[in-house]
């Protein structure tokens, strides 16, 4: 099993208010799955994704990622896991506006000390995989929203992660462009057997997942298969 969450709870204390963002989540995800996490605003979707992505730790419960017990790891070990295993895609694309698509995709590899030549080759291959080979030299503002999101997906792919985590990746796109991004995720999942976990509040987007986890008030309400 790639991911195992056991009775995961996440509490936030702000002033006198204690918010139970996650209230006992049990979830297992196998390698190669395409999972959608669906639920209304404030239900705990991003909190859950951030814990899966080792950006945050549970208040209580157990999280085992690829056989490693995450709560025992220190900050350096967590950032190593993020860099080596996990590609993130967000609603807003988080590209650097002053650099072209190619360089934006190379960035994760710079942090890993990979040579300039290998960086360029791998970034080109990742941009080709998302259908953007012809736009490599364009800066983000010279690309459409859907193309910018493809660059962000290429940047997540370039480090050959075990897992892609996407939080509302189509939230800033019109529905046609959103659908094409979801089709890209489907293709990557099928062709590369890449594990994808996607958060959305849009039922139409959740339909692309092979399994849908419905979350409400920090708890899993139901799990359905598409
Ligand atoms: N850093 C924080 N401090 C305090 N409360 C927080 C924090 N982050 C999230 N929460 C609360 O935890 C709950 C779950 O938030 P979360 O961001 O996971 O929801 P979400 O399902 O992603 O919502 P949305 O669809 O609006 O993005 C909410 O009630 C939110 O107010
Ligand atoms: Mg959210």
Account of the 3D structure:
The chain has a single domain, classed as P-loop containing nucleotide triphosphate hydrolases (Rossmann fold, 3-Layer(aba) Sandwich). 35% of the residues lie in helices and 30% in strands. The strands form two sheets. It has a six-stranded mixed beta sheet with strand order 6-7-8-3-9-10, with helices on both faces. It is globular, with a radius of gyration of 17 Å. It starts with a strand and ends with a strand. The mean pLDDT is 96. Bound molecules: adenosine-5'-triphosphate and magnesium ion (MG). Adenosine-5'-triphosphate binds next to β1, β2 and α1.
Second CATH tier, the architecture: 3-Layer(aba) Sandwich
User: Over the alpha carbons, how many angstroms does the gyration radius reach?
Assistant: 17 Å
Strand order of the largest sheet: 6-7-8-3-9-10
Task: Return the CATH class.
Answer: Alpha Beta
Q: Outline the low-pLDDT stretches.
A: none
Total of helices: 7
The biggest beta sheet reads:
6 strands, mixed
InterPro entries: AAA+_ATPase (IPR003593), ABC_transporter-like_ATP-bd (IPR003439), ABC_transporter-like_CS (IPR017871), ABC_transpr_LolD-like (IPR015854), MacB-like_ATP-bd (IPR017911), P-loop_NTPase (IPR027417)
Domain ABC transporter: 3-225
Keywords: ATP-binding, Hydrolase, Nucleotide-binding, Transport
Pfam family, one: ABC_tran
Describe the structure using short key phrases.
single chain, 226 residues, alpha/beta, Rossmann fold, 6-stranded mixed β-sheet, 4-stranded antiparallel β-sheet, 7 helices, 35% helix, binds adenosine-5'-triphosphate, binds magnesium ion, ABC_transporter-like_CS, ABC_transporter-like_ATP-bd, transmembrane transporter activity, EC 3.6.3.-, Putative ABC transporter ATP-binding protein YknY
């Amino acid at each position: 099993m790639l991911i195992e969450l056991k009775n995961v709870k996440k509490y936030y204390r702000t002033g006198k208010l204690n918010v139970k963002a996650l209230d006992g989540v049990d979830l297992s995800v196998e390698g190669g799955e395409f999972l959608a996490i669906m639920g209304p605003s404030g239900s705990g979707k991003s909190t859950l994704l951030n814990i899966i992505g080792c950006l945050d730790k549970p208040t209580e419960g157990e999280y085992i990622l690829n056989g490693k017990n995450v709560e025992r790891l220190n900050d350096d070990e967590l950032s190593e896991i993020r860099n080596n295993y996990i590609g993130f895609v967000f609603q807003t694309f988080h590209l650097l506006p002053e650099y072209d698509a190619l360089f934006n995709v190379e960035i994760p590899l710079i942090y890993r000390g990979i040579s300039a030549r290998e960086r360029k080759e791998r970034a080109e291959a990742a941009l080709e995989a998302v259908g953007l080979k012809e736009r490599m030299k364009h800066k983000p503002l010279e690309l459409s929203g859907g193309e910018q999101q493809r660059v962000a997906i290429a940047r997540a792919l370039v480090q050959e992660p075990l897992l892609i985590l996407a939080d509302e990746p189509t939230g800033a796109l019109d529905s046609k462009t959103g659908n094409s991004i979801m089709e890209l995720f489907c293709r990557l999942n099928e062709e590369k057997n890449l594990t994808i976990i996607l958060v959305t509040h849009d039922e139409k987007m959740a339909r692309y997942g092979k399994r849908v986890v419905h979350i409400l008030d920090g708890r899993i309400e139901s799990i359905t298969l598409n």
